[in-house]
Amino acid sequence: MNLTEWAKTQGVHPQTAYRWFREGTLPVPAQRVGPRTILVNINANTTPKAIGGLGLYARVSSHEQKTDLELQVGRLAAWAAKSGHRVVRVEAEIASGMNGRRSKARRLLADPNVTTVVVEHKDRLGRMNVELVEATLSATGRRLLVLDDGEIEDDLVRDMVEVLTTFCARLYGHRSAKSRAHKALEAAEHG
């Protein structure tokens, strides 16, 4: 894949990607094959390697799910140990995925020692705009690693829940938005 195509898929401006190539900070291997062509080897980067260290992030929405939070942290830590990566930070919190002011998530993302942020599911990092976080991490030479990416059907359902959650949050407030979104989906499904 050429550098311009790669930059577009990563949400990075092609000039920024070219500057990274010149400076040697491009997060994937690339080589110049002509006077104007730079090829990026995307297959060489299929299994992300953490140079600095991993930051593990777990989140649940309510206090009733606290045991799930502990299990989530345990699964992330077990994966990191099995993979042989060095964990530099672990953050776990009970907060809404719609809340953009989650202190522990912000602390993890701001830590310069964390080169790879690891979450179990994409929605654990946030309900909306996770792709923006991913692009920001990529632009700084870091990455987001989702252990359980899910199926396409799960993504479609998740997208529908996100849209309904957003509308319900505006109508009814953030607390009950998720449950109302699920009820609306169930009502649409059953009748």
TrEMBL record:
Single GO molecular function: DNA binding
Domain Resolvase/invertase-type recombinase catalytic residues, every copy: 53-191
Keyword DNA-binding appears in the UniProt entry: yes
Enzyme active site: S61 (o-(5'-phospho-dna)-serine intermediate)
InterPro entries assigned: IS607_transposase-like, Recombinase/Transposase-rel, Recombinase_CS, Resolv_N, Resolvase-like_N_sf, Transpos_IS607
Top-level taxonomic group: Bacteria
Gene3D superfamilies registered for this protein in UniProt: 1.10.287.2170, Resolvase, N-terminal catalytic domain (3.40.50.1390)
PROSITE patterns: RECOMBINASES_1 (PS00397), RECOMBINASES_3 (PS51736)
GO biological process terms, semicolon-separated: DNA integration
Keyword vocabulary terms for this entry: DNA integration, DNA recombination, DNA-binding
PANTHER family from the UniProt entry: PTHR36172, RESOLVASE-RELATED
Protein name: IS607 family transposase
